[in-house]
Design goal:
The complex is a heterodimer.
Chain A (H helix, E strand, L loop, with lengths): L12 E7 H11 L4 E3 L7 H12 L6 E3 L4 H13 L5 E5 H6 L1 H9 L5 E6 L13 H4 L7 E5 L2 H18 L3 E6 L7 E7 L1 H7 L23 H15 L2 H16 L6 E4 L6 E5 L3 H14 L4 E6 L1 E3 L3 H8 L4 E6 L9 H9 L8 E6 L9 H10 L10 E2 L2
Parallel strand pairs in A: 2-3, 4-5, 5-7, 6-7, 10-11, 10-13, 13-14, 14-15
Antiparallel strand pairs in A: 1-8, 6-12, 9-11
Chain B lengths: L1 E8 L4 H14 L3 E8 L7 E9 L12 E6 L7 H4 L2 E10 L14 E5 L1 H7 L7 H12 L4 H11 L4 H18 L1
Parallel strand pairs in B: 1-4, 4-5, 5-6
Antiparallel strand pairs in B: 1-3, 2-3
Helix pairs in contact in B: 1-5, 3-4, 3-6, 4-5, 4-6, 5-6
Chain lengths: 393, 179
């Protein structure tokens, strides 16, 4: 059901009541993509549906492709991007997993695609619940990964992601949690088209597929050339964090909503810092405020940019903090929480390193209310840290 | 912050009602957050739509554990399991032909039964009960305003706008007259 009036009032923004998914559709439309290959899957489908409505109503000039699978959708994204088009797509869970082979290809081919993934449990068993394993399992494919907490952040991040992806020619994925963000209907500030046009320059890659020019892309190469391609990706990846910072600040200058790779919420003098990603950050903020009111020094460190992981900033943020609690809404069988693993690795050898507790909270979409987070802070205040993640439901 | 849960079966319109109720509060200047969860993603299985309403932006991203009001689309769903998530003493509006005494054993709540099917049928809406139930609900809660609710229904009902508004007003009046 579309309950927002489909209007773009004058001025720099327009407050609409939108779901997280429809906020994404608005962000994508405002970025003026040339091509949007899409395939439906619960709980992503409303993104696709709204984009199709924009196309039907003549509000989207770009080409909407509806191929027969997510694998084909991503193939079309790569080809469209390499011809120099601005490309958007969206998927979730099984759809993202079906794309896996081509996620590597897109990154290696330096296709500046922007994709939204709705975090949902992978089968089996079948489910529709918020869990970040689907996108975290793509962490080695060479895509930039951002995690969004709110519908507003999802809209804003889609537009910023084009600025990041296209300037460095790295595909960029924004993930938001099923239901708590994707289907949460909230007031969302929709910026004007002129604001977005001013923020987002046209995509003009130096190299592109052109039927007028005979060139070979992605041809078989020797070992050293493959090795060089990864070094070039590493060089581009090393610039992502600064670019995400720049894109988030420039967006803030225009809209009043700034974003960065990490966000510190009441971490000053914190004895316990909770580190997590996505929708759970909102609930943690409520728990932090309640605990601060009781005199307990607790803060939140929100990881918005997961890939590349902002290692140096994480080290400086957490040096000297007595305790860190990582809340992982994902589980890697045989290993544990993926953010826990990444964070402990990032903090390796740090002087005054915190005690790190890795907690598997909300795996499979299990509810994690603020009361549970407060209880965890109490439970782990004096606990010995373990190298392995702990189940806390 | 008010936390409202709408309980129904897939296909009955609980999610639509949640969105319409959210829109009415939003139009009255409130911050809202509504989301639906469904077990089997198919018709007939229990679905809940959750709605938070506040004067300031809403940050919580978790289920409602202690609702301050409930709207139930189907009295066969109303049992201790679902009522465990409803704060004691609060209002539970339920689509039912039974009198409120029939629910007394379920606990210390203010049950407000309304025959949504009867009102829907009288207004040429067949089995589509959401507008009638919303009318009863805003009467029982005394918010959001009935005029705001009817405007939202007019703008968002996919068909038969005037019949939906009439059903909403009839249920509203019925609850007002009975209390």
């Amino acid at each position: 059901m579309n309950i927002a009036p489909n209007i773009d009032k004058p001025g720099n923004s327009n407050r609409l009541l939108l779901s997280g998914n429809h906020a994404v559709s608005w962000g994508a439309k405002l970025a003026r993509p040339d091509v949007a290959p899409v395939y439906p899957i619960t709980p992503q489908t409303p993104i696709l549906e709204r984009i199709a409505e924009f196309k039907r109503d003549g509000e989207l000039d770009g080409e909407l492709l509806t191929p027969e699978s997510e694998h084909s959708a991503m193939s079309a994204c790569i080809a469209a991007s390499l011809t120099g088009g601005r490309v958007f797509t969206a998927t979730s869970s099984q759809g993202l997993l079906l794309m896996h082979e081509l996620l590597h290809y897109a990154a290696g081919a330096r296709a500046a695609i922007v994709m939204v993934n709705v975090n949902r449990t992978p089968a089996s068993p079948w489910g529709f619940w918020p869990d970040q394993l689907d996108s975290l399992a793509q962490r080695d494919t060479g895509w930039v990964q951002l995690y969004s907490e709110t519908p507003q952040e999802s809209l804003d991040s889609v537009i910023q992601a084009f600025r990041v992806a296209e300037s460095l020619r790295i595909p960029t994925m924004i993930s938001h949690d099923a239901f708590y963000v994707s289907h949460a209907v909230e007031p969302v500030e929709v910026p004007s088209q002129s604001l977005v046009d001013g923020y987002l320059p046209p995509y003009e890659p130096e190299l592109r597929l052109d039927t007028e020019k005979g060139q070979s892309f992605g041809a078989p190469i020797d070992q050293a050339t493959w090795n060089r391609s990864r070094r070039e990706m590493a060089e581009a990846m090393s610039q992502v964090q600064d670019k995400v910072t720049e894109a988030g600040q420039a967006w803030g200058d225009l809209t009043g909503r700034s974003y960065g790779p990490l966000e510190h919420y009441r971490t000053e003098d914190a004895e316990t810092v909770i580190v997590t990603m996505g929708s759970m950050c909102g609930t943690v903020r409520e728990a932090v405020d309640a605990l601060r009111d009781q005199g307990e020094a607790v803060g939140l460190l929100k990881v918005r940019l997961f890939r590349p992981l902002p290692v140096a900033d994480l080290r400086s943020a957490l040096a000297g903090v007595p305790r860190v609690m990582v809340l992982d809404r994902n589980y890697s069988p045989g290993m544990g929480g993926i953010l826990h693993q990444e964070l402990t690795s990032a903090l390796y050898g740090l002087d005054k390193a915190p005690a790190v507790h890795g907690l598997l909270a909300g795996v499979g979409g299990v509810n994690v209310p603020a009361s549970k987070i407060k209880q965890l802070v109490a439970d782990y205040r004096d606990a010995e840290p373990s190298a392995t993640s702990q189940w806390v439901e | 912050m008010r936390e409202i849960v709408i309980l129904g079966r897939g296909g009955q319109g609980a999610q639509t009602a949640g969105n319409q109720l959210a829109r009415a509060y939003f139009d009255e200047g409130q911050y809202v957050q509504t989301f639906a969860t469904y077990g089997g993603a198919r018709r007939g299985t229990p679905v809940t739509s959750s709605l938070r309403v506040d004067e300031k932006p809403i940050r919580l991203r978790c289920n409602i554990e202690e609702a301050s009001a409930m709207l139930c689309f189907d009295d066969s769903l109303l049992d201790e399991t679902f009522l465990r998530g409803v704060e004691e003493g609060t209002t539970v509006v339920v689509n039912s032909r039974q009198p409120k005494e029939a629910f007394a054993d379920l606990g210390n709540y203010t049950f407000v039964p309304v025959d949504g099917l009867d009102i829907a049928q009288k207004n040429d809406l067949g089995k589509v009960v959401n507008s009638a139930l919303l009318g009863a609900f805003v009467a029982a809660l005394d918010e959001p305003g009935i005029e705001t609710m009817c405007e939202v229904i007019e703008q968002t009902a996919p068909a038969k706008q005037q019949q939906n508004i009439a059903a909403c007003r009839e249920a509203y009046q019925q609850i007002r007259d009975a209390n």
